[in-house]
Amino acid sequence: MRHSSDDLPTALYSGAQVRALDARLIAAGTPGFELMQRAAHAIWRALRRRWPDAGAVTVLAGHGNNAGDGYLVATLALRAGWKVRVLAVSEPQCLQGDAALARDEALAAGVEVLAWQKTHAPQGVLVDALLGTGLSGAVREPYAAAIEWINGSGSPVLAVDIPSGISADTGEALGAAVKAQLTVTLIGLKIGLFVGQALDHVGSLLFDDLQAEPAIVADQQPVAQRLAGHLLPRVPVRQPTAHKGQLGHVLVVGGDHGTGGAALLSAQSALRSGAGMVSLATRAEHLAAAQTRLPEVMSLAAASANQLHELAGKVSVWVVGPGLGQGAWARSLLSLVSIASSAQVWDADALNLLAAGAVSIAPGQVITPHPGEAARLLGISTRELQADRPAAARALAQRYQVACVLKGAGTLVADPHGRLLVCDRGDPVMAGAGLGDVLAGLIGALIAQGCTPWQAAGLGVWVHAGAGEYLAAKGNGLAAGDLCDAIRHLLQERAACPK
């Protein structure tokens, strides 16, 4: 997964929206062929920067404007003295409009154009100019075979606009999909580049707006926003007279027999993320470990919900679910939380009990499901959910009237009003147990310090992923608890900066 880059725009669009922007730019007076030329120059610049000594380019051309971009890239490479050929997967004479003009320019310049065959040997950098953002169904032949040829070539691959076979809207691989080392995307960022299976296919991502008229782009309402620091709230700098009572009281509820570690991680995270007070309600067997590991946390052995009634009135935020289990004990505790008036963050088994209909959640809270839990909440398979993660996140937020954090690579944050945030931070080193427990505690602590549930969900996801990036340099084997100090450091950086 590529790391985030704050020089990218934050607005994310559907494939149809970007095609509409292209049409509006043409209607406003920029000729389509000129846009295609700008695209080719942007792609060629990126290719030369990434592979300056390659000396050879093979363009795989399809039948639409993507192919036109590819033909013009081939022309530029030939004029620069590189060895060039175009392998046409679609008949070149079938091209129309601006793509046909690009083909003619390439032929006039002397570019070699051949009908693609499986027997062709790859040559230099492969430019994927096969399929664009309009793909909606499974990739058909001969494109599927050509994509398989690209992926099996062992050559460096640059994708034009989006790797062929990836949905611009969902990030799903529609059958065969190109695996690129570099993708140069144009005019507007497509949401599908940041979610789902696309993360295994995009490689490094570069963006060029092709000098699009800002007013025209601004007129298009994006489908989502990329999480970026300047869009997120700052944790207020504490005044000299600040005291713990002003910074909220987080109560973590969880830790059934044998799963006390999950609740301890959430409590540790809430503590390190700045909550004024943190309490833990757990099984009696975990009390000694909790008091030893986290003496700053007020730990309570709770046999049932009855033992939490007195504490409930003092709580600012409940974090419920880590290690909770789904038995009678869990149901008893969750029944109390569900009717509490304070803010709540529901994670793990709390969500499984919600999916089973054992309890309901009040509107306005935060839920933090991983894909399996999210699929159960929606009553669909995990495969169906992963095929369109943006739609799933929105559906969960609307069904339960909550802020939904759909975890995974390309974590999504949705609310009932249709807002959607996409996180492009993080690192594969974070693929391990317990990191979700840390995230739940972090979000709870942010709410305790004054963030709204929506703000806390977005900021929590962004900081949590940033902490993973920060620690990734140390290699695999990241323990979830390692994140807590990194989170503390990143939150302090944000608090120290002026608004």
From TrEMBL:
Organism: Phytopseudomonas seleniipraecipitans
Transmembrane feature ranges: none
Domain YjeF C-terminal, first and last residues per copy: 227-494
Protein name in UniProt: Bifunctional NAD(P)H-hydrate repair enzyme
SUBUNIT field: Homotetramer.
Residues annotated to bind (6S)-NADPHX: 132-138, 143, 161, 262, 323, 370, 437
UniProt remark on cofactor binding: Binds 1 potassium ion per subunit.
Gene name for this UniProt entry: nnrE
Pfam families referenced in this protein's UniProt entry, alphabetically: Carb_kinase (PF01256), YjeF_N (PF03853)
